[in-house]
Amino acid sequence: MSVDLDWVGVLRHGQSTGNVAREEAESAGADVIDIAERDADVPLTDLGREQAKAAGEFLAEHPPDVVVTSTYRRAWDTARLAAPEGVAIVPDERLRDRELGVLDLLTSHGVRERWPDELRRKQRLGKFYYRPPGGESWADVVLRLRSLLSELSASRPGGRVLLSAHEMTVYALRYLLEGLPEPDLMRAAHSTEVPNGSVTTWERDRDGGFTMVRAQEVGHLHATDTPPTADDDAAQQLS
User: Fold this and answer.
1) Pfam families from the entry (predicted)?
2) 9 forms bridges with which residues in the sheet?
C-alpha cells in the first residue's frame, strides 16, 4: 500500500499481568489463563512500567511527531510513560490486540482439549486467514491497521508516527509496509520474538517503499538495566 509517512515505529507495550499469567498457565499445562480483567483492562506489571520508562529514553533521542496508541490499558499506559514531553498521545481502537472469540483465555493445551475442531480448521485455513468463532483473523487486524495508516498518511504527510501497541502490530506492519507475502510473513513470525518494551521502526525509501531499520530493538532496556521479557501476546495462540 502507499503510505505517505517518512518514519513508522511500533513500541510493544511493557510486560503485563496477562503476559505473566499466560506464561504461568502454559508452564503448568492448565487449560485456562487466570485473568480477572477484560483483555482491554489488563495492567502493566512493575517491570512493565520500568520497560515503558526505558523506552522513553529511546524516544527522547528519536522523537515522533505523534504517538497513536491502542485503547487497551497496557498499551495506553506504556504510551503515557514513554512519550516525550509535548508529543501528543492519540488513542485509536483500531490498534487493539487481536480478538480471540471463543478461544479467549485458553492456553494452547486448553484449545487442543476444548476446541479440537477449531484447531483442525486453523491448520486447514492457515494462520493468516483463520478466524476463531467470535474473533478475528490476522487479515482482519491488517484491514483495520490499513485504514489507520491511510488516515495518518492523509493527515500527517511526511510525518513520524509511533504506534504504542501489541506484538501483532509488528507483523501486520511488515505485511503492509514491506509487502511481505503471506508465506514469508508466517515464516518471519514463527522465528521472531517481539519483546515487551521493544521498538521496531521503518523508514521510507526513495522509491516510496519502506525498509525496517530497527528490528525489535531492546538496547534501551539493557542500557537502563531493565530486563526484557518476551512472552507472546494472546494473538499468538495456536501458533
Assistant:
1) His_Phos_1
2) 162, 201
The answer to whether 204 is a known ligand-binding residue is no
pLDDT single digits (tens) 150-164: 999 999 999 999 999
C-alpha cell at 23: 506464561
Amino acid identity at 132:
P
Longest CA pairwise span in the chain (Å): 51
Under the phi-then-psi rule, with left for phi > 0, alpha for psi from -120 to 50, and beta for the rest, what region is 131? beta
**Structural domain for 205, as ranges:** 5-236
189 to 152, 203, 230: CA distances (angstroms): 25, 20, 13
Helix 182-191 with 167-177: angle, nearest 10 deg: 150
Give the model confidence (pLDDT) of 204-230 as tens digits: 998 889 999 999 999 999 999 999 998
- The angle formed by the CA atoms of residues 100, 151 and 95, to the nearest 5 degrees, is 25
Which residues, in sequence order, are CB contacts of 123 under 8 Å at separation 6+? none
Q: Kindly report the CATH number assigned to the domain that includes residue 37.
A: 3.40.50.1240
Q: Are 109 and 22 in contact (CB under 8 A)?
A: no
- How many domains does the chain contain in total? 1
Question: 213: which 3 cell numbers?
Answer: 531499520
Compute the C-alpha angle 100/71/115, nearest 5°: 5
Quick: pLDDT tens for 50-99.
Answer: 999 999 999 999 999 999 999 999 999 999 999 999 999 999 999 999 99
